[in-house]
Sequence to fold (738 residues):
Amino acid sequence: MSIREYELEGEEMNRGLIRKFENLIQLRGACWQLRTLSYRKVYRAQWKPVQSSAHPVWSVLLYPQCWQKDKLISIALSQRRHLATKEETKKKKKKVPLTKGEVEIRQKMTIEELARAMGKDIDHVYEALLYTDIDLGSLEPDSILREDHIKLIVKKSGMKYKSAKLKEEKERENTDAVKRPPADPAVLTPRPPVVTILGHVDHGKTTLLDSLRKTQVASMEAGGITQHIGAFLVHLPSGEKITFLDTPGHAAFSAMRARGTHVTDIVILVVAAEDGVMQQTIESIQHAKNAGVPLILAINKCDKPEADPERVKKELLAHDVVCEEFGGDVQAVNISALKGENLMVLAEATVALAEMLELKADSTGLVEGTVIESRKDKGKGPVTTAIIQRGTLRKGCVLVAGKTWAKVRFMFDENGKAIDAASPGIPVEIMGWKEVPSAGDEILEVESEQRAHEVVAWRTYVEQQEKMKRDVEVIEAKQKEHRMEYEKKQKKLAHLTWRQRKAVLYKANKHLMFSKPKERTEIDKNVLSVIVKGDVDGSVEAILNILDSYDADSECKLDIIHFGMGDISETDITLAEAFNGVVFGFSVKANESIKQLAAKKGIKIKLHNIIYKLIEDLKDELNSRLPPSVVENTIGEASVLNIFSVTVGKNKVPVAGCRVQKGLLDKKMKFKLIRNRDVIWKGSLSSLKHHKDDVQVIKMGMDCGLSLDKYIEFNIGDEIICYEEKEVQQTTSWDPGF
Fold:
């Protein structure tokens, strides 16, 4: 064989070895690919064997003599670069920078995401999870971790964590509507005074208004108490006009009274001549002072024999209300609202004070006003009663109030008569609102519907931002609290293995995990969940203000799960069922289908037309949630006069010779032994005898011998008390203030 043939044969063998080596490299790359696919759960990955650009395989084939170890390694490694998916490319580009070992975490992170944030591999996270009670067999790289586990993994890795910040939005331009600058005094024109009637409950405020405007408002009011703010325009014989705000006189409506004084010019303080100054009278005076509004004193019910107007004036001195006859500046008028006495004198005093105040307003330009009352009407939709303070309101005007807006469709006066315009100082009922605004909201006119949308959007945005800030503060506080609790638990369980920790936690929570629905209800029995529905916004607010004063959570927790306006709906019943709650309605209705649904689901619906009746009913519900208290009722008392013992079997039993001093002793009842005013024993009698005969009852004045169900030595002078235990329903200590 020639040399050339040897060379060709050697070259052929060389090529065979190269092919085998290539196959081995490809096999190794395939094994890595299969391992990664199964471990990382990466789907839809494509097989892409990538040759090294620096050392391609064909170069090895052509130049076998140039094989080197490092080149072979580079070729082998190149075969592993097979997962060229878009997702992995993005992940490789986005490397999370670590600042001094801090890891930015967020809720609901997966194992894979946490590993990337820490700059570690998944195996590291799995290793750290060994310190928790998680079943590692159920975890995958895309499994979501709890926040406490995320924090523990970071800490076990020797790093610190920080919560991911919300993305900062670009600062939005303020597009809110604002009041116009003060008007030129030259364009101001006189306007009617806005007068608020304040005073104690049942002192005659509604009767006074009724007499002034010659309507029957008082007869329509439930229980004789005004239930929500109303605004009325009164025309006097002299041609003057006065706008009255009739705020409720009940203590429950202090917030509504306070709001009424912010739009008023004059306050008429009604005090009953026979009752004098009461709690709500003092509150009304304080509201007027805070608002800087002048007072006129109307001493009502002066026609009654027990009336004493002078006493009322003197009592008011203690509250810095000084009448003119005592050198002050407060006009005092004695009236009888029921009989109509001196009402014109009171009206003239009001007009005179208004003239002194020189009340004027600008009736041109964009409208400004205040919502006095808001409600949902079935036929009219959202409706508001408002006082116009600037400009002239007409049909078609676009208004904003709070986070809602309106294009005025119709306007009505206090008698329900349609009107075309409302000038400053005039009360008006407005239709056309998209939603019901809150009582007390400021009304501003804007140029167009588009502008109204901008204003509402801005106000909604501001509210959301404020809510987010509050929520973040609450969340951080809760997280800190939970972290401290968790760390305390971990310290207690630190000496245990993770299996032992799991067993301890299981035992601690076992009673809750396997409790039946009825048993869970018993656990939450001392919680009263309520839903409050009212006819108007002001009424709902008044009820909520009363409930805000609830201070007996230690006895029974009061939880307001929902409140709103309108009749009782199916949603209210469903919500009440979910929370085992009670639905309270004020001046609203529940149709028959709703009542049947509530009865079927066992939900109570409590409807009332008088505020204090609703609160009393709510207190009864609270009382029903309280556990009964056990009270001892004494039936008889006996004194120990002699001591002896008898032998029963091998035991000696102490016996007391007694005489019944009060009532009787009944063997079936419970007894207690008192010595030097201390209770020594409580229990039952083992025997009760009279002249060696066993008896059940020993009456007053009779002697007897008795022994106890427990071995106790008697002393002469001891007292034996016979009593029975009775369960008495507890009452809540909450006092709503009326």
In short: The mean pLDDT is 78. The two ends are 126 Å apart (CA to CA). The CA atoms of residues 673 and 679 lie 6 Å apart. The chain is about 35% helix and 25% strand.
